[in-house]
Design goal:
Length: 120
């Protein structure tokens, strides 16, 4: 088993950067924090899904593990950035969804890889 750690790290960092790009303008705009509470869950799920898919698509096996590690690393990065902050429960749930999104992206990459191997 060979994990593609560089792809996992890059995907997790890019997922967090994407989330920050969405969150900062919303936090600064009037009413933006309320909007952010509604979109944080799907944005976390989508960002880590894409990251998990990208990290796993070049893997030869263990696709879901690649995606799961993207989600885990993204959640750890977020925890490190917000270590001393008191966050609403929705952000804790969003971090759990990062694991689900990453694993789902890895699963999708694995399905695509197996489909191309079976194609005539």
């Amino acid at each position: 088993m060979r994990l593609r750690w560089w792809r996992i790290a890059i995907a997790a960092i890019l997922a967090e950067v994407a989330l920050i790009i969405v969150a900062i303008p919303l936090n600064l705009s009037p009413g933006g924090r309320t909007v952010l509470l509604y979109i944080v869950l799907p944005v976390c799920l989508i960002a880590t899904y894409l990251g998990g898919w990208w990290a796993a698509r070049r893997a030869s096996d263990h696709f879901v593990l690649h995606g799961l590690l993207v989600g885990l690393l993204a959640a750890l990065i977020y925890e490190a950035l917000t270590l001393k902050l008191s966050l609403p429960l929705i952000y804790v749930i969003a971090n759990a969804l990062k694991l689900v999104g990453g694993a789902a992206g890895g699963f999708a990459a694995g399905r695509a890889a197996h489909a191309t191997q079976r194609a005539p």
